[in-house]
# Entry
Amino acid sequence: MPHSATRAGYKPAGPQAARLFERVIAVVTGFCPNVEVTEPGVCAFGARGPARYFGGEAVLASKIIAAVAELGVESRVGVADGMFAAQLAASSAGPVGPFLVIPPGGTAGFLATQPVSVLADQGLADQNMATRDLAGLLKRLGLLTLGDLAALPVSDVASRFGDTGEAVHRLARGLDSRRSRPGRPTATCP
# Structure
């Protein structure tokens, strides 16, 4: 299922930034009702239905970017098969334009060129210290890209790196089965 991630052009800090990001979430929710805040300044949502309604992923992304810009916030949108790839696409969108749409079936190819360090950098909802440590170890072992990791047999990765290795191997192959979990940030804004 296509997912989309919106990355605000700032890192929220303090009550004013939190209130502004709440407004960003309200704007995005106007286009896509099931929005999950994945980290400060980043949200994710299923894009299939809203994209169909608005005329495609690129149109939806453009509309969200324009609406968020009305708040005075620059944002980037990424669309891909899976939340992990969508977040990476949003992060990569800056140099190529305000949004990046990875075509259906193209997620594995897009991910293959990404450095393994993104496993530690992306603020995965289920990320823990083991994932960060594994990303560093993979790099030291000479596995520099997600494509290098994805090329390894899953049984070898699972036997050497356990459940964490198997989970990041699935992400590297574009097999992200997580669905967005709609909800507001846990901190309240005055």
Q: What stands out?
A: The two ends are 36 Å apart (CA to CA). The longest strand covers residues 2-8. The first helix runs from residue 14 to 31.
